[in-house]
Each structure stands twice: as C-alpha cells, then as structure tokens.
Design goal:
By secondary structure, this protein is of the alpha+beta class. It is built from 5 helices and 4 strands, in the order ααβααβαββ. Strand 2, helix 5 (81-89) and strand 3 (100-106) form a beta-alpha-beta unit.
Length: 121
Amino acid sequence: MKRQIGLLAAVFAVAGCAQMPAPTAAHPDKAPNEVISFDIPPDALGARDPQLATVLAKAGTLAAAQPQSTVVLVTALGQDFAYLNQAVWKGVPAQRTARVNFENRTAGLGQPYSVSIRTVQ
C-alpha cells in the first residue's frame, strides 16, 4: 500500500498541475481508515487538465485495489461532480465497481476541492 501511495505522490510531482501538497501534508488530521486524501488545484480543474484526469483515474485504481470496500468522497461544487466522478471511475476496473462507492459533498465558501478515499469499516 505504501508503494501505491508513493506511486500516486510521484504522479502528483510529474503531473505538471499546480503545486499539490503531499497527501499527508494536505490533511494531517487523517482518519484511521483513510487511504489517501488530496486537494485539487482550481486552475487544473478549470482547465480540465488531462494530467489531473490521470491523477484522478489513479485514485480510482487505488480505491479499487483496497482489500475492503471503499468510499471516494469528492468535495466540490455541484457543476464539477460529473467531471470529477467520471475521471475517478475511469480508474476502477469493471470487476471492482461494486466495492467502490461515491459520496459527493458540496464545498463551502473558501473550502478547497478535494478527493478522499476511505475504507469501509
């Protein structure tokens, strides 16, 4: 699992999107069942950056690779949920779709867009 997180961190570094903090630095109050959590740079989302789509798909792959069922929590504005959810789903293999669930949470004023993957306990 550390290797998967390292791979995802490497993708962030190479992605060329706006500077993204390391997953653990993004959310130091990490829940015990949290696999990864990261903020989405607004400029990458606004530009529909293909490298952001790649990172989101890798997050879907990571969610599907967990031994337990997972919940992918996407925090954004309503108009962006379809794009973000679809980008994450692209990384989930068809045979694992039943084990990955989505929750969408509307971002509040000044709250960053984010993706969080948690295992179901």
